[in-house]
Design brief:
The protein has 344 residues and is α/β, with parallel strands linked by helices. The chain is 32% helix and 17% strand. Mean pLDDT is 90; it is low at 340-344. This is Lipopolysaccharide biosynthesis protein.
Length: 344
């Protein structure tokens, strides 16, 4: 896309499994000059926790960090400012960069429900374009609706004649994921489906602490959690071995996880607890099985029929390139508002 060639972009993002780095890299490949900063001063479990639950206790570190960024960029002029999420970012920083770059377009994207992060709402007024992956937030706060994306390396590389697994699950250990995952595995075992489950936690000490206070995590068998983060290539390798992938969204979240797009782009079937997926243009019951997290049931035939490959336009609309195009060039509200709820 030529529209970003030679454009100067200030990009701040929360760290989310290196997807922010992939966005910065792609912007650079399109010819933009990108200055990237993590929006948190630190990504330690302690700093993440204190920013989320009582940011005031971390104000000195935040203030120092953002003053340093301002000093580093004081002689730079930007065409765009992109912020993804923004839990830590202080108001003085938003006001200062706008004052120094009065013609700069400010863009915000959020991939979590604002009910979970209500502190983000106050900063929306500073942005020219605002996007969310959560349909209800788009309506409530008058935001553009844009789901997440897949990285190009996930895209289907061809037909597989045999699979090692019928279903895999790879995801962070949070909310009721373990409870739901164990229900799914029990039903899958009854149907003699071959499964692989990988629950990931950021740190051993933090997870043990959360396990003491979170009723869902109290049931977690510590032998089933890993503290090693899988790389994108390792995840892709597991997808390549499986007919389908299980996705368990947060119980209070309707927005689609990034796994949704990666799985479908990889040419694998999706088993998901997110019923709102029926309201997306790419929904196809041949490829997507919706399950009830409270009363899990699996359809054996789903695992024996072939995946129906989405058309090229659909694949493009789910891609990172399309995501970037939506944020910087033209919104895609009309496309993503399409509802294909009828059975195909």
């Amino acid at each position: 896309m030529t529209g970003l060639k030679d454009k100067k972009i200030l990009f701040l993002s929360v760290s989310f499994f290196k997807y922010e780095r992939a966005i910065a890299k792609r912007l650079t490949e399109w010819g933009a000059e990108v200055d990237f900063y993590d929006e948190r001063p630190s990504n330690s479990n302690f700093s993440k926790g204190i920013i989320r639950f009582n940011k005031k206790l971390y104000q000195l570190q935040i203030h120092t960090y953002y003053k340093r960024i301002l000093k580093e960029i004081q002689h730079r002029k930007y065409d765009y400012f992109l912020l993804i999420k923004g839990e830590a970012i202080p108001v003085f920083f938003l006001e200062e960069i706008k004052r120094n770059n009065p013609r700069m377009e400010m863009i915000h994207y959020n991939f979590d429900p604002l009910t979970e992060y209500p502190g983000l709402v106050a900063n929306l007024k500073y942005f020219d374009k605002k996007f969310t992956f959560e349909r209800s937030d788009a309506h409530t706060y008058h935001l553009h609706f844009r789901p997440l994306f897949y990285l190009e390396e996930y895209k289907d590389r061809g037909e597989v004649t045999s699979f090692e697994y019928d279903m895999v699950f790879i995801g962070s250990a949070h909310t009721d994921r373990y409870v739901v995952g164990e229900k799914v595995k029990a039903v899958a075992d009854q149907l003699h489906l071959k499964c692989f489950f990988y629950y990931y936690a950021m740190g051993r000490a933090a997870f043990r602490l959360k396990k003491l206070i979170d009723k869902n995590l109290k049931q977690f068998d510590l032998r089933k959690v890993s503290f090693k983060k899988l790389s994108h290539q390792e995840i892709i390798a597991y997808y390549g071995k499986s007919k389908s992938v299980l996705d368990i969204n947060k119980p209070f979240q309707e927005g689609l996880t990034i796994r949704t797009f990666e799985v479908l782009a990889a040419g694998r079937k999706l088993v998901t607890t997110n019923a709102d997926i029926k309201n997306y243009p790419f929904y196809n019951p041949d490829n997507i099985l919706i399950i009830d997290r409270e009363n899990v049931s699996l359809k054996p035939d789903f695992f024996t029929t072939e995946f129906t490959k989405p058309d090229e336009k659909t694949l493009y609309m789910m891609s990172l390139d399309s995501f970037i195009e939506c944020l910087f060039v033209e919104d895609q509200d009309q496309y993503w508002s399409l509802s294909h709820t009828s059975e195909k």
